[in-house]
Amino acid sequence: MRLLKSHILFTICLGIIVGIALRVYEVVFVFVVLVSVLGILMGLFTYLVSKHAYAVCVGIGCVCVLLGFVYAHFWADRTYEPLPLGAEISIEGTVRSYPRLSEFGKGFILSTRHGNAQVYMPFSQEVEYGDRFVLSGVPEALGETQQYLTKDLVQGIVKSPRVITYTKGDPSPMRILFKVRTSIRDTFVKILSYDQASLATGLLIGGGSVAFSPELKTAMQNSGTTHIVALSGYNISMISIWLFGLLGMFLKRNTTFWATIIILLVFTLMTGAEASIVRAAIMGMLMISSQYLGRVYDFRQSAVAVGCMMLVASPYAIRYDAGFTLSFLSLFGIVYIAPLLVKLTHCKVLAETLAAQMAVMPVLVFLFDGFSPVGVLANVLILPLVPLVMGISFCVGIVGIVSVTIGSIASLAVQPALAYMLEVIQVFGSFERVPWTKSILVTIVYYAACIGLAAYARKKKLWYEFSLS
């Protein structure tokens, strides 16, 4: 069988992904070397005996596993000096992330000569991207709930440090974009009720940009809807689908495709262009591209290539960035499982929602330590509205920056939808979560079943009926 260049590229990217994953999950290097060498020898032997071209892919893949493992190892050790922990020190650095609200205060990444530190300042402290600080504080080791910061090379946490000097940063594109993001959040606070403003902000620019009320936070956890404010690839994917379909009603297919891509780019920039949002936008564009081309095979090749590039940029995302996992799993569900569900439900929107929910369910169980018995139903009632609410909220936020009065009037277009979503969250949030033991075996069996469904859909060529046009 003829070996195509696309097969080789797929093998290289997949091998690098596997190698990075093995290093990030701390698999012993000697074991990786032994298995890889064995794979290379088996591939070489098979090729010499049978001349099967795909045996070459086995060898190439094993070599790339080693390369990915070594790359991730050196990526993790590229900081200049270790950050001293447990002793008060002077820390000088520049703010390199958007300040996020948490129980500890305003949290942001400070880039220093020791690498990166996660700093938490009082809510009253003015902090913007690019600002410079000289602080005095005691760095602490990352706790179990802060391990996700490892993906950003954060070595420690500094809570409530004393500010020695503070210098405002120079104007820059990122600083301007983050100011727009903050202005949108502040606009929502002025023209909407607290919970509506929190939900709109979370949907549009991520839950870390706003402090949810304890009642709403608990209700979202119990109803299994917390993920909707994560601004993951799922949100952007659904926006892409709806936007592509809406524009397709008025424009030609080619024009619709490029208009959707441009709008996604503008949305990414206006919401701050952080790594998580950029990743989500790329996955959304990938979703649209796969549907525009009408070939699932192209999606597989592209998805692995994009995933490889993302992990090369930030290897620890595969372990500590839930959004990365949700992005790929939700797209897997929408592209491979939804076509089968369309046959069963005769409703494309419902099929897409259920498929994405099925794909991310085990990950959500791992993230939130339990299972919401009403989560699927709550998501079915809410998720179809997410793209519409995000789109209208974005327009309201931009208008509100120009004029709060006009923004208040424009907000009437989104308030009913926000009120409905909050009501659904509150109603289903009254049900207690069911404790669920985390099981790798159950997760493997579950995804094996999903892959089986996808294989069945592919065999029956059901994806040809799944179109955004």
TrEMBL record:
Chief location: membrane
- Transmembrane annotation, as ranges: 7-25, 31-49, 56-76, 197-216, 228-251, 257-278, 299-318, 324-342, 349-368, 380-402, 409-428, 440-457
Q: Where in the cell is it found?
A: Cell membrane
Q: Pfam families of this UniProt entry?
A: Competence, DUF4131
An example of a Gene Ontology cellular component annotation for this protein is: plasma membrane
What are the residue boundaries of the DUF4131 domain, all occurrences included?
Answer: 31-140
This protein's membrane topology, according to the annotation, is:
Multi-pass membrane protein
NCBIfam families annotated for this entry? ComEC_N-term
Name of this chain's protein: ComEC/Rec2-related protein domain-containing protein
